[in-house]
Design brief:
Elements: H1 5-14, H2 25-33, E1 43-47, H3 52-65, E2 70-73, E3 85-87, E4 90-91, H4 94-112, H5 121-136, E5 141-145, E6 162-165, H6 173-176, H7 180-187, E7 197-199, H8 204-216, E8 221-223, E9 228-235, E10 240-246, E11 251-255, H9 263-281, H10 287-296, E12 304-308, E13 311-315, H11 320-333, E14 338-344, H12 351-358, E15 364-367, E16 389-391, H13 395-405, E17 410-416, H14 418-425
Length: 428
Amino acid sequence: MIHTYQEALHWIHSRLQMGIKPGLLRMEWLMERMNHPERRLKTVHIGGTNGKGSTVTYMRSILQAAGYETGTFTSPYIEQFNERISINGTPITDEELTELVNIIKPLAEELEQTELGGPSEFEVITAMAIYYFAYVHPVDIVLFEVGLGGRLDSTNVIYPLLSVITTIGMDHMQFLGDTLEEIAFEKAGIIKRGVPVISGVKQEEAKEVIAKRAMDQKSAVYQLGEQFQGKWQQSLSTGEAFHFESVFANMESLHTGLNGLHQADNAALAVMATLYLKTFYSFLIEESHIREGIKAAYWPGRMEQVSHNPVILLDGAHNEEGVKALVHSLKMRYPQQRITALFAGLKDKKLDKMVALLQEAADVVIFTTFDFPRAAKQENFELLFNNRTIWRDDWRQCIKEFQENTEEGQMFVVTGSLYFISEAKRLF
């Protein structure tokens, strides 16, 4: 029996030693033992390489503006662990999380004695979320963000009203494959029979994989750039302005609550998904709810401005595609600024390509590390040093020095792993 929140967190994190365990057999076993809570839920399933968190945030904000109590399951967390399971953007309480652990822990221990082996940390958290929204606090709809890939991800036990695939990029290749087609195949695994998919994928070879999976499953595809699009107009002091066009509706001058030119695509995906829910599932969503929801959306660590004087941004650009989007936005939004970037990544990522991209926008890149098992150390950056890069052990002191010594026309961007952004966020 778990008695405190800290004990509950310790038990959840102890499952990390199980590593990443793709496959659905353990989740199906847990669902069976819990009397299939996944069948009680109305859900939307959101997968992709980048943009999942932002798209979930826009959808949640629109649905909330329309008066729907909306659950979300997201990862990783930025400010506190509980936010992974939230209702209307508010994380579950410490007491609720402890209660869920006491429900799941005996089942996990029983499962461990079977030939399937014990569940991983992510499988445990997914089962907790499904149980919570089914039995503890039922809601109108739940938005489930895929953890890794899609086809074999533990969230893939749900049967959603709608599937969304944001982007396809070269990430987690040790699990998903070495080509865009292989990665797209894994992401497209969330497409269920007869369930339509909203796609923000841009590469032709990846789009073909998704279209084939959808055809095999007799599922309709709504593709960004074809059945709908978000036409970026301009950057605002906060967020971006874009026009939305689709087979369902057109809307002029929508304003996002998140910075970054790529947010026009993420927001367009969310608008298209909510319009689909309105058109085919009778969700009462008006244009005013969409406008209000898009503008009110907040998601930490996505080109988030945490200081105005000096300007300091936090951005979880944790792979090539993420850095590419960050660099594009920095060039467009801050063309006259001298940019210093503080970068900490994971050693299993393509650090060389990420740093090369980052240097297209940053005048100086400072490499650092942080307290995380997979964090890249100084030796992982050895081949990447040049006359525009330096190493600093103490990234907190680095930020403090910039705040104290900055000059006019300078800005600071803290970027890299989302786990690092979570650490840095606490300073602000």
